[in-house]
Amino acid sequence: MVGRKLLGAALGALLLGTVSASADTIKIGIIGPFSGPFALQGKNFQAGVEAFMALNGKSVKGHDVEIIYRDLPAANPAQSRALAQELVVKDKVQYLGGVYFTPDAMAITPLLKQANTPLVIFNAATSAIMNTSPLVVRTSFTTAQTTTPLGKVAFDRGIKKVISVVSDYGPGVDAEVAFKKAFEAAGGQVVEAVRMPLNTNDFSPIMQRIRDSKADAVFAFLPSGPTTLGFVKAYNDTGVRQAGVKFLAPGDLTQESDLPALGDGAVGLLTSFHYAVSHDSPENKTFVEAAAKAIGSPEQLSFPSVGAYDGMHVIYKMIEATDGKQDAEKAVNAVKGLTWTSPRGPVGIDPETRHLTQNIYLREVAKDAAGKSYNKEIQTFANQKDPGLAAP
Ligand code: PHB
């Protein structure tokens, strides 16, 4: 509340002309984890932004575009709100983008209306974020969206009993609910549902519970980063995999940048997701080349880069539609129903929810001819909306 008052005062000053808006440079403030354990995820945001600007230019309709990055190393709503306020008030950004973790997005959306600023989310994946402000648009995915096709696939592959294990916060709960719904509708049964604190890093007790459950498979969601690497390592190293318990997860758990560290332990893991770095299309080839150049090497690329790349596409369309003027409502309205070909495949902004409609792919970690692990797309579920936001 105090924060909002401060923002109000500063915005008032801006309107009175005590703080003058800079000439014709459109500033975009991007919040992400650029340092700390999740730094590679943030670097993927930056690679996506830089790839987009390298391929599409640094100005729109004669308006120069300037990016201001702000580091938010871990989920921290208070710091997220403070950074967003500072970007709007002090740096005078016209657009906010980025945001890796759900709680950080939830802390920003209440500010958007007063700030007259759209937020384009590059990652945070809880369905309900979209209901918290009409000025938020999302170019990533939701865990309900990526997970739903997996329920039927699992049952069709002979899996009857599953233990679900998720991080206990928005995207984890959404994943648990969506998987259970789809899997049980197909005929399966979730025999146990475990929610772990977000900061869990010792997974041995969980692995014991998985074995004790006698389930045919574990369904898991954790936010990508050191967390997922630790979980998949534990699945391999504590004998759960050797005991024959199958693995099901959204692709957050087999992001490409983790595959070298997982070695042969990753091969065969079954996931569903909106993007694989290996996706075979001319658009993705162009994107991967530019993004790899931006981040330093193709091995570091992962899904946040494509969320950022498409996020920039949306922001450029907003700048075009408003001809550089700050009008958040007009900017958001202009991209409702927008469709284009992303590096991940055909996508569109659902005008009802402002979330991305996209293909979800079933993938299996495989080795290429050079012995390098990758997510191999084996089936496409076309044109998926977010089932977490669909009318009941
Ligand atoms: C989220 O906090 O919304 C989040 C973070 C990382 C992921 C997925 C979702 O891999």
TrEMBL record:
Signal among keywords: yes
Keyword annotations of the record: Amino-acid transport, Signal, Transport
Domain named Leucine-binding protein: residues: 25-368
SUPFAM superfamilies cross-referenced by the UniProt entry: Periplasmic binding protein-like I (SSF53822)
One GO process term, biological-process aspect: amino acid transport
Signal peptide: 1-23
Top-level taxon of the source organism: Bacteria
Pfam families hit by this protein: Peripla_BP_6
PANTHER family per the UniProt record, alphabetical: LEUCINE-SPECIFIC-BINDING PROTEIN (PTHR30483), PERIPLASMIC BINDING PROTEIN OF ABC TRANSPORTER FOR NATURAL AMINO ACIDS (PTHR30483:SF6)
Family label: Belongs to the leucine-binding protein family.
Protein's name according to its UniProt entry: ABC transporter substrate-binding protein
